[in-house]
Amino acid sequence: QVQLVEAGGGSVQPGTSLRLSCTASGITLESSNVGWFRQAPGKAREGVAYISNTYGSTVYRYYADSVKGRFTISRDNAKNTVFLQMDSLKPEDTAVYSCAAGAYVGQSSWFLSSVYDYRGQGTQVTVSS
């Protein structure tokens, strides 16, 4: 059975940082394309960041314009974990953050949660002064 478990959320002040983790069991994230999503109350789910699998010579990373330059996605293969480093957090970053993994996800679709095969339950991030 495949499980994705997010951790690292919390309540922080604007301008600070958090690092979220997405740890998998039942699949190898190194072989998967992984996306981070967020959903704020009353808003649609938004694709935040993406990292491609390691099959090719190049690992691709994509970010939503709203987080570009502030968020960084990375992978620790030994821990079977993907991280989302979030810096310079803003109140508008407040949302439930979740990760998803899929075999066939690319540049044209990474921001669509429906194309992923597996999804986690999410972790709450609240940015407030």
Can you walk through the features of this model?
The chain is mainly beta and 129 residues long. The protein has no helices and 11 strands. It has strands spanning 3-7, 10-12, 18-25, 33-39, 46-51, 61-63, 71-76, 81-86, 95-102, 118-119, 123-127. Strands 2, 4, 5, 6, 9, 10 and 11 form a 7-stranded mixed sheet that branches. It is globular. The protein starts with a strand and ends with a strand.
List the helices and strands and how they pair.
Elements: E1 3-7, E2 10-12, E3 18-25, E4 33-39, E5 46-51, E6 61-63, E7 71-76, E8 81-86, E9 95-102, E10 118-119, E11 123-127
Parallel strand pairs: 2-11
Antiparallel strand pairs: 1-3, 3-8, 4-5, 4-9, 5-6, 7-8, 9-10, 9-11
User: Helicity range of the residues?
Assistant: under 10%
Largest sheet: 7 strands, mixed
- Please tell me how large the radius of gyration is: 14 Å
SS content category: mainly beta
Instruction: Return the average pLDDT rounded to an integer.
Output: 96
User: Which of globular, elongated, flat, extended, rod-shaped describes the shape?
Assistant: globular
- Given as residue ranges, the uncertain stretches (5+ residues, pLDDT < 50) are none
Q: What is the end-to-end distance?
A: 40 Å
Number of helices: 0
Strand content: over 45%
What order do the helices and strands follow? EEEEEEEEEEE
Total number of beta strands: 11
